[in-house]
Amino acid sequence: MNNQYTIDLTLQPTTFDLWHVGLAGAVMLLSLTLLILLLAMVISLSRGRKPSAGAAIIQQPAEPIVKIVEVEKIVEVEKVVEVEKIIHAPAPEPVILKEATPDAALQLLGLLQKEARFLDFIKENITAYSDADIGIAARVVHEGCNKALNDHFSLAPVRNEVEGSNITVQPGFDAGSIRLTGNIVGSAPFTGTLIHKGWQVTDMRLPKLTQGHNAAIVAAAEVEL
User: Fold this and answer.
1) In this structure, which long-range contacts are made by residues 171-174, counting pairs with CB atoms below 8 Å and at least 24 apart in sequence?
2) What are φ and ψ of residue 36, in 5° steps?
3) Chain segment 77-119, per-residue pLDDT in tens
4) Residue 73 CA from chain centroid, whole number
5) Which of 15-29, 158-172, 198-212 bottoms out in mean pLDDT, i.e. has the lowest?
6) Termini Cα distance of the chain
7) Helix (H, G, I), strand (E, B) or coil at 35
8) pLDDT value of residue 217
9) Measured between alpha carbons, how far is residue 161 from residues 69, 93, 126, 150, 193 in Å?
10) Region label for 8, one of left (φ > 0), alpha (ψ between -120 and 50) or beta (otherwise)
11) pLDDT above 50: residue 71
12) CA-to-CA distance for 179 and 199, rounded, in angstroms?
């Protein structure tokens, strides 16, 4: 026996009874309820994004305010005044100049005149003489002067180096014994060329003078009778 039923969905009810009214009302109620639920969900979601009034507000720490306070620095400048104390050096002892007695010098002139006719040669006007005559006279004067010096003086060179050689003058040298010439810069030691070796008297043997002798007469006048 075949119990299958065929339902035609295209058919529309021809009668609208109380059961259909209830069914339509239920459908409308469910639709309204669903719509309210959807609206409630949308409102709750939108409120969830904004902080509620009762929620605690977390405040971000404010940026520190930097106050620049200009501090006026008082710099005390210590002024150092250098006082130069001038200490006067003790006055050097006065140099006592020895007065040279003319007797020795006059006596030497007398010896040169005696041995070499030195004064006669020096005081003679030689312009009228020839070079040959002057050479002969100079030889005589040279020999006589050399004899007078050797008889009464002992001489030695100040420097023993050969003239024209290089020598070094050490600090503390005797300015009376060594005379520097040329470009003198700085202080000793100096290195230079020996131009002249110098002379110094190591011994003197002048004749003794008698009482009342007039040393100014270095050559007596000669009278031939």
Assistant:
1) none
2) -65, -45
3) 455 555 555 666 677 777 777 676 788 899 999 999 999 999 9
4) 35
5) 15-29
6) 223
7) helix
8) 92
9) 85, 36, 37, 23, 10
10) beta
11) no
12) 12
pTM above threshold 0.85:
no
Tell me how far apart the alpha carbons of residues 157 and 155 are, in angstroms, rounded to a whole number: 7
Which residue in the block uniquely carries the two structure tokens 């312009």? 127
Q: Tell me the H-state helices in the chain.
A: 18-49, 102-116, 118-123, 131-152
What's the whole-number mean pLDDT along residues 137-165? 96
Q: At 96, give phi and psi (nearest 5°).
A: -90, 110
CB 134 within 8 A of CB 168: no
Closest C-alpha among 129, 189, 193, 184 to residue 162: 193
Question: How distant is the alpha carbon of residue 143 from its chain centre?
Answer: 63
Q: What are phi and psi of 167, to 5 degrees?
A: -130, 165
Report the alpha-carbon distance of residue 204 to residue 150 in Å, rounded. Answer: 10
DSSP string, 155-185: EE-S--SPTTSEEEEPTT--TTT----S---
> How far apart, in Å, are the Cα atoms of 115 and each of 81, 84, 103, 192, 215?
75, 66, 18, 39, 17
In single-letter form, the type of residue at position 15 comes to: T
Q: How far apart are CA 69 and CA 57, in angstroms?
A: 34
Q: Please, which residues bridge with residue 169 across strands?
A: 190
Cα gap 161→193, rounded to integer Å: 10
Q: Which residue has the tokens 């119990």?
A: 3
* Residue 78 tokens, joined: 């210590």
